[in-house]
Amino acid sequence: MSRVKKSAQIAGMLVVLTGGAEGLRQVAYPDPATKGHPWTVCFGHTGPEVVPGYRRTLEECKELLVKDLDKHADPIEKCVPWLQTAPIQVYVASVDLAVNIGSGGFCKSSIASNFNSGNYREGCQRFMLYTKAAGITMPGLVRRRENERRLCLQGLEKAA
Questions:
Q1: 144 burial level (CB within 10 Å; 0-12, 13-18, 19+)
Q2: 33-81, pLDDT tens digit by residue?
Q3: Three-state SS sequence of the chain
Q4: Which of 7, 84, 85, 155 has the fewest beta carbons under 10 Å from its own?
């Protein structure tokens, strides 16, 4: 069971961070970079079921967000075992990134390799490498990565 399910504090922080970064849209919309696939709904939810015209209620969107958070948290805890005990802020920033780039992308990232090598500060700095979608630097992703990096570094400072 991931830390998302074990801690109301972590779940709450993630709902605010991820939900705020993604925004709420109850009708499916195209990816801003590709102008098409992947179609997205609610708080950044994607999947084969999300097609033009797909709609969800507010309650369904909240449920999808919690499921998406947990879906990405468990794999990153496995590929970076340190995240199971890392400062909450580092963990929350990492899950938020994984929701956005996929847990597989996170596990293959230089962030994960730095965390696994004990280079925690450098891992936090590497969040800024993920500001592009379809090869285009997206201002919203730059802001999101800055927030994640700041949160990650705050966690390391509090733990020191």
A1: buried
A2: 889 999 999 999 999 999 999 999 999 999 999 999 999 999 999 999 9
A3: CCHHHHCHHHHHHHHHHHHHHHCCEEEEECCCCCCCCCCEEECCEECCCCCCCCECCHHHHHHHHHHHHHHHHHHHHHHCHHHHCCCHHHHHHHHHHHHHHCHHHHHCCHHHHHHHCCCHHHHHHHHHHCCEECCEECHHHHHHHHHHHHHHHHHHHHHC
A4: 85
Residue 10: exposed, middle, or buried by beta-carbon count in 10 A (0-12, 13-18, 19+)?
Answer: buried
Distance CA 140, CA 152 (A): 18
CA distances in angstroms from 11 to 89, 108, 110, listed in the order given? 12, 24, 25
pLDDT at 120: 98
The strand pairing partners of 133, in sequence order, are: 136
- Provide the 10 A C-beta neighbour count for residue 6: 12
Angle at 114 between CA 108 and CA 120, to 5 degrees: 135
- pTM of the shown model: 0.92
Residue with the two structure tokens 């090869």: 135
